[in-house]
Amino acid sequence: MIHVVLLCSKMLKILRHRRAMESICEACARDPSSHSFKKLKESNDHVLYYTNPSRAKSYTDTEGILTHYDNVLQTLGNKRWSWIFDSDGFDWRHAMEIQTGIGLAKLITRTYQDKLERITIINPTWHIHVMLMIVLPFLSEDVVRKITILNDRYYSVVEFI
């Protein structure tokens, strides 16, 4: 009997999470690996997000990715936010998604830069440097100052939690 209660409790939790995710991103509600922008940690006044585009199945879905980011960031309220961008595996296929990079740069600059504390790029490939050169003109000077590239060694996301 206790196993049935635990199973039902777990299923309810999964359903609640799925419903919440549907309001953020329908594609990710169906398949959580569609896009890559996840909350890692949250405190009273700050949220830390993580992304690794090479692990996203739908990295060519520019409109869906931009909607996903926008919907997630709309939930910030008065909280500040930081973003860990893991470039491990970021290659030419991802660098070719120029409109996604430009769209994210515009979205952050126009709507979310005031609450942005920092963007930390870890495990950079030369492809991410190319993408940065392309999107820099679409970022405000304020956002550019908040970008740090850590290229001295391999980093695990666990180090930032």
Jot down its keywords:
161 residues; alpha/beta; Phosphatidylinositol Transfer Protein Sec14p; 5-stranded mixed sheet; 7 helices
CA-atom Rg in angstroms: 17 Å
The biggest sheet, with number of strands, parallel, antiparallel or mixed sense and barrel status, is: 5 strands, mixed
Major beta sheet, strand line-up: 1-2-3-4-5
CATH topology: Phosphatidylinositol Transfer Protein Sec14p
Number of helices: 7
What is the top-level CATH class? Alpha Beta
Percent in strands: 15-25%
Q: Give the helix proportion (percent range).
A: 40-55%
Number of domains: 1
String of helices and strands: HHEEHEHHEHHE
Care to give the gist of this entry?
This protein is α/β, with parallel strands linked by helices and 161 residues long. 47% of the residues lie in helices and 18% in strands.
Describe, in plain words, how this protein is organized in 3D.
The chain is α/β, with parallel strands linked by helices and 161 residues long. The chain has a single domain, classed as CRAL-TRIO lipid binding domain (Phosphatidylinositol Transfer Protein Sec14p, 3-Layer(aba) Sandwich). Helices cover 47% and strands 18% of the residues. The chain is built from seven helices and five strands, in the order H-H-E-E-H-E-H-H-E-H-H-E. Strands 1-2-3-4-5 form a five-stranded mixed sheet. Helix 3 runs parallel beside helix 5 and helix 5 packs across helix 6. The longest helix has 23 residues. About 6% of the residues have low confidence.
